[in-house]
Amino acid sequence: MKIGIVVHGPNIIDSGYALKLIGLLENYGQVSARLGGTMGRTAVIDANLENIIDISKKLVPSDSLKIFHDSNVDLIFLLNYGKSDVTGQVFGYKVYNHYVDKISSNNIPVIQIERPGESDGSIIPWNNDLSIVGQLAQKLNLNIVMPDDVYENHIKHDAVGVNQRIVHGVSPGENIMVNSVVIGKTNSTKLILIAKDNYIVDIVGGELKSHGLEKLGEVDLNSAIIKTGLLRHAKVTPRVIKSDKSDNFKVCFLDHAGEDVYRFKDCDLVVTVGDDTTLISSDILYRFDIPVIGITDGDLDKVVEDGFKVKNSIIFEVESGFDDICGQNIKKKIFHNKEESYDFTNTDEIYLKIKEIIKNINCKYKIIKIK
User: Fold this and answer.
1) How many other C-beta atoms are found inside a 10 Å radius of the C-beta of residue 47?
2) How far apart are CA 112 and CA 273, in angstroms?
3) Strand 110-114 to strand 175-178: parallel, antiparallel, or no bridges (unpaired)?
4) Which residue among 142, 285, 342, 354 has its CA within the 20 to 30 Å range from the CA of 15?
5) What's the chain's average pLDDT?
6) Any idea what DSSP says for residue 255?
């Protein structure tokens, strides 16, 4: 029997259960595993699991499920470790239904294992209640939850309109991220995002951040990836691996945290714009020993527990509201509105050029050098 395993998010990896479950499922057949999500990829690298969990592509979970469907496996598992049983089950419901919309025939059983090791952990047979579900539930001490139960308990009463989206399992004081952009903060346990003409215009249970909404732009609330709180909870020791660098000094420009940061792993230096973008990208690029020059304005929303930065990274903390203005000038004058540049031979050259540009903008700034 051929078994496809989709691993979602860092928590299932950091907990050690991804590896345990892959080993357990190897007793039932030939196993292949793949992952989606940027922070999950970082967890795979830190755990040295690249040879077990495929991280070569940045895929949403439903697309990873489809890959296994198209390769005609006999059984597909979705492994997840949500903040709560509610968030995990609602996540699975949405992933499964997105997946069903992408395939022509739904003849392969899909089973979700959610929050293993927790008292509210569950196993959900989304389209076929096989005997293996009962066996795994007993071995892992998981509750069996049926799809109809998820719908009745969490989904049925949430149909508040096509321009609104309920977000489950939130706590007060958490960041709200839509497609990797922080757009606000919760102040309640209930959260509803409201959109008009594909722009988020209002919120129930939180406060919006206008600067974040500007960065987000148009969005389809039905398909958007929405998360609250920390992207990764575990305290980790980052693993640094060698990456292929170009013969010439390659500098890249990044101004949106939603980008696939991993495609910059062959750069010698990355210029990042924005507090959240700098925090997330520098943490990932640390794994490839790539320094950053970050342009921030001190408006940081904590989205990871620790933000690692390579030695010799440099942070320009400019006057509030000036990070984007500085970034636009840097992109135009240094990168000629492109993503990469080979016009420099070392970090000091580009640092001095950026410093000159920021001085000419005439805003207050301070420089933080990572030693």
Assistant:
1) 18
2) 38
3) unpaired
4) 285
5) 89
6) -
